[in-house]
Amino acid sequence: MNNRFEEVMSKKTTEALRTIIDAPEGTYQADALEAAKLEWEKRHQSKTTPTPPMEEPPIADMPLEQPIFEKPEENQPVERRYPALRVIAGIYQALAYIIMLLAVIVFISIVVTSSQSLWLALGILLGGGLLALAMLAISEVIKLFIDIEKNTRIAARY
């Protein structure tokens, strides 16, 4: 029980301790009063008795295995990550150009043979162009995410 009172008294302010000690007899339990007096003595003893200086080696003598703030080399190569995503982006880009080329070839063949309507040829050209554009956009988004990751990794070094 005494430890509980000591813990409570250690959290009290100096003024609160003084109030407890100066209170009329019987206001507080004997154990609480004793814990307050011990805490009061501890606080005043630590103020009057200087603590001996600690023996620590000077900072200059401490060996540093690695500097705390080491700036990496400016021309240091950055590791290329996510090779599968790079391949997927390349495949999307290649397919986009192939689709665009096929759409142009089909458009020209329909117009030259004129066996079918011009509107069908324009629809194929427009559809192929939009599909190629969408595939190029997907390829660029994948490359963008890879570049963001790379730049974040480089910035984290500093």
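Next protein, fold it too.
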Amino acid sequence: MPDKVAWSVSGDGENIYFSNHNKYLYCLNGRTGKEIWKVRLLETENLTPVLADGRLLFGSPDRKIHCLSAATGKEIWSCLMSDPITSAPAVNEGKILMGLKNGDLICLSLSEGNVQWRKRVQTDLNFSPVIGRGVIIVATVGRPKQSVYCLGEAVAPGLE
């Protein structure tokens, strides 16, 4: 069994996924605790894996968004961002949303990792976006003020 869990844990009802301070991302059987796979990472700071359609998504301090097979841990794709990633991903209808340190909200396709659009909101989008009913809610804690934004279809096309 790995040492301490570093950040948030995700699960799919069968397996659990998490990182530790030894810079590994793990998949364990949720019932038995048996290791299914582990992947060595460059860093695990603030790593929150999110599951969507059999894929495990997370941002890393190396400015990359990674997409792994949840079953095997093998990388499907990765995408280099212009700034450090500061939020966990949110997934809706085949789209991934994440915040960057420079204040950009990024939307990528789940299938390929291609950037669909970006919107400058404010510095440090530290919290995961929330998606629903055609809007995106994002919160910030950076300067000059703490804010909550609600972005609609005109800003974020294609979200349900």
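About the second fold: The mean pLDDT is 85.
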